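Annotated sample (chain length 181).
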Amino acid sequence: MTTLLSQPVAPDAVATLYRQHHGWLYQWLQRRFGHAFDHADAADLAQDTFVRLLLKPRGFASAGDARAFLCTVARGLCIDRWRRQQIEQAWLQALAAQPQAFAPSAEQRVMLIEALCEIDAMLRRLPAKARTVFLLAQIHGYGYREIGERLGISERMVKKYMARAMLQCALLEAGLLDGEV
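Output written by the structure step:
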């Protein structure tokens, strides 16, 4: 278990952590995920890990605690990157099935993929039943009664699950969710 220090972190503490652990983290990423990422990807992930630490500086009781924290953040970033790649691949496959006249610009593609990633993160925050209810209603167009019958729950529970999902959508739209899990 990582022990965080509750006292304020000196501004140069993150720089010190970077100097002490960046090379080690890069090598760890290469060993752990070398089959999935090239050297540039590992370098980017190591850098992104420290960017996260810069955004929320914290102190550690020991070098081992710092490394455990860095590994946890790096693993999360790897998972995020894989999810994004899966979403991007699914989008590109769907796009390939469309006529060329409907092809979005490169800028539009980036914006669409970002939006899809945010939606994916929002859906992952929901309990499984709420996520299923939302998808059945929004993607498949089922009514609340039909969803209830399919899932073996009351129409009232369907409404509660939809309300929860719609709240997450509203929070996402308002910029109150960071899209991270």
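Annotation: The beta strands are 4-5, 59-60.
Annotation: The first strand starts at residue 4 and ends at 5.
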